[in-house]
Design a protein that fits this description.
It contains four helices and no strands. It is an all-alpha fold. The two termini are 21 Å apart.
Length: 108
Amino acid sequence: MSTHNTSIESCIACMIACEQCLTDCIETQRDDCAEMCRDCADICALTARMQARNSTFRADFSALCAMVCGACAVACEEHAMHHESCRICAEACRRCAALCNVVAEECV
């Protein structure tokens, strides 16, 4: 499978993990993590769409997505030992960040 398709799938998987983590964070009042997951879910969804349509801005969105995913991973890793949703989200964010960085570099 191409990096392009793998990155799109990774963005979608990350968006889902972030949404699930966001729900868990709201229920357990982890506001710092919840805010980060919300931003990450949104940028992942938009980046997947930009990559899918081969937008002129896909490199820019991919680079931003990688940055936001990296920050979200850091936030979720703080809770990962006690909250499964944070562990899953952090892993999905790391995977998405790595693939979005590849897409950003390939598009330049």
